[in-house]
Amino acid sequence: MEDESWLCHFNFFVDITMHIIDLNTKLQQQAQYVNEMYGHIIGFMNKLRLWQGHIQDPNLCHFPTLKETGMRPKKKTEFADRLEILLKEFLACFKDFKSHEHLFEIFSSPIHTDVNKAPADIQMELIDLQERTDLKAKYVEMNLGDFYRKYLNQDKFPKLRKFVASKMALFGSTYLCEQYFSKMGFIKSTY
User: Fold this and answer.
1) Which of 108, 118, 152, 178 is the Cys-Cys partner for 35 at CB 3.0 to 4.6 Å?
2) Within this chain, do residues 93 and 113 fall inside the same structural domain, yes or no?
């Protein structure tokens, strides 16, 4: 505990762990669709990039434990390198999501999305949806799930509805899946 270098590293990792716990908490919130969860991941990766620059300055405003102790790493790039490794790990873990990013955008903002970037089978229905001024107003007023349930009519938007259902059905985390299994276990018990 008297080794200043070890304490400096320990405090840095305490701060990083707190940021990761914050991300984990955001990912476990209820009533989130996969696009929102992916947004949290992208936001965290952007924070990692920001912190890399800050820690080299050294601006420790995002590392309160490290700042409180007044310790500085011996090499300015030491912690920035650690953040770079963490960023590369996140990029590797979520590379599959990157290829679906445009689909998440269509799902989360069908009124404002570029139809040319949408899959060909839903382009016509997207145009029809975007032309409806009454639906544009409802889209702004309601949350996404309610909007799709109430106003994405099966008769008028069958392909778009199927596309939306495929995105709404995605489990963003195993936490939600485990939660449903727990509820089922409770229902099947003597209670």
Assistant:
1) 108
2) no
